[in-house]
């Protein structure tokens, strides 16, 4: 759901994770895998009651009439978005969307997709927005491929709602001497495809001496990368800090992985909307500002143990 993916230049694709020593709350639900299906996320039967939705008139009429905002998301990125044991979509993003829906009088319907296809789905009109621990970057805003520097699309606008950074983790008790990205030279790392973690690994490998490049194995989702590392198929893994910290906390009852070194590349997560869809963008910004003001945002940050990544206002296109 931050699959660190396209999160900047060397980070032009990322889902990046919360800044600071975020304590992952013990109350977090156990991680679950998402499939390629729709899920309406948190129960929100009261979100469509227009009388109690102070910001409903800010939405485009088409969305307001349907009562649904279609959300593209990689629902396999605990604790940002994932499915619990019952198959319900839970996490930071679904909780925020539910609270925003009450302000706007609509339901946010999450539809699962691989992270690196979400912006394409947004451009094609499959989704109204993408909310998936996606880092707001200048390249994404401008529709530029971070690796080639070439224009690949119109770009998107972001409503920023969180701040995050990237971490490295290893098998518990076997850190291979890895403390920094430079220590990965000559070693193998597993990452989610299209994420900032993959970008950082590629950029670091270019700095390694001949014969000691970093071997990078990329997967469709972060859980596949974790499985590979758990089985001994790599020396380290990398993902957004909240995701890495959650894996360390929950995988094997806390016995599978450990964090190494400090998180890097702090940047904002943003809700992505198509360029030109300014009415929806501004409605989302107003709804996010409203839940920040009324305290619902803080409750969600505290619930998931990510308060240090909280923002005090919803910025538009604040990424660099």
Summarize the structure in words:
With 320 residues, the protein is α/β, with parallel strands linked by helices. The protein folds into two domains: 17-164 and 267-316, D-Maltodextrin-Binding Protein, domain 2 (3-Layer(aba) Sandwich), CATH 3.40.190; 166-265, 3-Layer(aba) Sandwich (D-Maltodextrin-Binding Protein, domain 2). Helix content is 27%, strand content 23%. The strands form three sheets. Strands 1, 8, 9, 10, 11, 12 and 13 form a seven-stranded mixed β-sheet that branches. Helix 5 links the parallel strand 9 and strand 10 (215-219). Helix 2 (92-104) crosses helix 8 (278-294) and helix 2 (92-104) runs antiparallel to helix 9. The chain is globular.
Features:
320 residues, disordered N terminus, 4-stranded mixed β-sheet, D-Maltodextrin-Binding Protein, domain 2, alpha/beta
Biggest sheet character: 7 strands, mixed
Assign the CATH superfamily of the largest domain: Periplasmic binding protein-like II
Tell me roughly what share of residues is in helical segments: 25-40%
Low-confidence stretches: 1-14, 16-37, 40-50
Strand content: 15-25%
H/E element string?
A: EEHEEEHEHEHEEHEHEHEHHE
Going by helix content, strand content and strand pairing, the class is alpha/beta
Number of helices: 9
Rg of Cα set: 19 Å
Shape from CA axes? globular
Number of domains: 2
CATH topology of the largest domain: D-Maltodextrin-Binding Protein, domain 2
What is the mean pLDDT?
86
* End-to-end separation: 21 Å
